[in-house]
């Protein structure tokens, strides 16, 4: 749990615009910390795979939450393997945001809450369809009422000072 909280802190401190080349001490420290956290997650996954087995109902991949952990670690391995090959990793790095979801597996009450929330999603289909219909109708009404009223409104006049 401490590793997950530490990972949340490092994700919050990461600055994508400034930390592209990782030239300062702060960025190097955060990168080393992120590498250590990832290594901890990978070792944890391997230990659980050895203890439980990989496949089967009682195996590591038999549990949905372990599949999420497996996906996060595999995408992290992909990120580290492609890091030196001049490949744009911005899309892969967004998967780092999923790492805090590992906390759901550690807290039983949170796990029950998320499971119930996922079980109720199919029942929300009718509500979402109704919302879509209402927004669609109001969109049509809005376009009919205000079509062309804001034409030529988004420009700077001659009296605009910079």
Automatic annotation (TrEMBL):
Superkingdom, natural source: Eukaryota
Stored InterPro entries: Ion_trans_dom, VDCC_alpha-1_subunit, Volt_channel_dom_sf
Record keywords, A-Z: Calcium, Calcium channel, Calcium transport, Ion channel, Ion transport, Membrane, Signal, Transmembrane, Transmembrane helix, Transport, Voltage-gated channel
One GO MF term: high voltage-gated calcium channel activity
UniProt-listed Gene3D superfamilies: 1.10.287.70, Voltage-gated potassium channels. Chain C
Transmembrane segments annotated in the record for this chain: 38-56, 123-147
GO cellular component, one term: voltage-gated calcium channel complex
UniProt KW Signal keyword: yes
Membrane topology of the entry: Multi-pass membrane protein
GO BP annotations, alphabetical order: calcium ion import across plasma membrane
UniProt signal peptide: 1-19
The keyword ATP-binding appears for this protein: no
Localization in the cell: Membrane
Chief location of this protein within or outside the cell: membrane
Pfam families assigned to the protein according to its UniProt record, in alphabetical order: Ion_trans
All residue ranges annotated as the Ion transport domain in the record: 1-151
PANTHER family assigned to the protein according to its UniProt record, in alphabetical order: VOLTAGE-DEPENDENT CALCIUM CHANNEL TYPE A SUBUNIT ALPHA-1, VOLTAGE-DEPENDENT T-TYPE CALCIUM CHANNEL SUBUNIT ALPHA-1H
Protein name according to UniProt: Ion transport domain-containing protein
Species of provenance: Coregonus suidteri
